[in-house]
Design a protein that fits this description.
alpha+beta, five-stranded antiparallel β-sheet
Length: about 260
């Protein structure tokens, strides 16, 4: 069997979102936040997180890529005046414009988009801004987020509990479709657990020691800090140790209960 090799490029879906939201924002002259979505190994598209695109917006995007009839038909909604998603044909053409490249085939997995038989003179616009953090296939510009002091002051004045944190981070939810905080439910050696919050300066660690039925976690404000790279390595190591130990025990329970 004859083997054939083609130049290919693998893009993480978060980067796909970043390149697309950048070029769509430029075309429409306003901030657009995208999240690449996968429906099957040969079909993907884009969800617009922070707004809806009008028919006029769609026509601008279609005109920019000189879309063919098939792309227009896939893109334009039949019974609506706006949409929050773009199909694969337009998304792919916009990505080609963003990267200044073309390709013959695409293959998508849960995490990556593979571009196959790529042609380009100079692959452009691929550098990722250092302020970008990838969250659930979307590119979050941390310059748009609340600061560490915004969060800390809000907790001090509004109540040092989970409900206050949710209210504070509603601004993130509106911009990025996510509150941008995560619970780390195991002890860091000093506290019962920690919440990680993505903020302008980086990642905050907000520890808690107690939980109740009304306000859920109560935070220890005196121990709030910004995480370092080494801190996150330690958190990951402790999580993997805890997760592996629990998974092994659960497998043992399964065997035991299965007779």
């Amino acid at each position: 069997m004859k083997k054939e090799y083609y130049p290919s490029l693998k893009l993480e879906l978060g980067k796909v979102s970043y390149y697309l939201q950048k070029i769509i924002s430029e075309i429409l002259n306003r901030n657009i936040v995208c999240a690449a979505k996968v429906e099957s190994n040969d079909f993907w598209g884009v969800c617009i997180v922070n707004t809806r695109l009008s028919l006029s917006d769609l026509k601008l995007l279609l005109s920019f890529v000189n879309a063919d009839d098939r792309t227009v038909e896939e893109t334009m909604p039949e019974d609506a005046k706006s949409t929050h998603s773009l199909g694969m044909l337009l998304s792919s053409k916009l990505l080609q414009k963003a990267l200044n490249a073309s390709w013959k085939e695409e293959y998508v997995t849960e995490k990556d988009l593979w571009l196959i038989d790529v042609e380009y003179i100079v692959l452009s616009n691929t550098e990722i801004d250092s302020n970008i953090c990838f969250v659930c296939n979307r590119a979050v510009d941390t310059r748009d987020l609340l600061s560490q002091q915004d969060i800390k002051s809000g907790l001090e004045t509004g109540g040092a509990d989970y409900n206050t944190l949710v209210n504070l981070c509603e601004e993130h939810q509106k911009k990025y479709g996510d509150h941008l905080f995560w619970r780390y439910p195991i002890s860091d050696g000093e506290h019962t657990g920690v919440y990680f919050v993505l903020v302008k300066e980086g990642v905050m660690a907000i520890p808690y020691n107690s939980v109740d039925n009304d306000c859920f976690e109560w935070f220890v404000l005196s121990d709030i800090k910004l995480c370092s790279h080494l801190d996150m390595i330690d958190f990951i190591s402790e999580w993997e140790e805890y997760s592996n130990r629990l998974e092994n025990q659960m497998a043992s329970f399964k065997d035991f209960l299965g007779g």
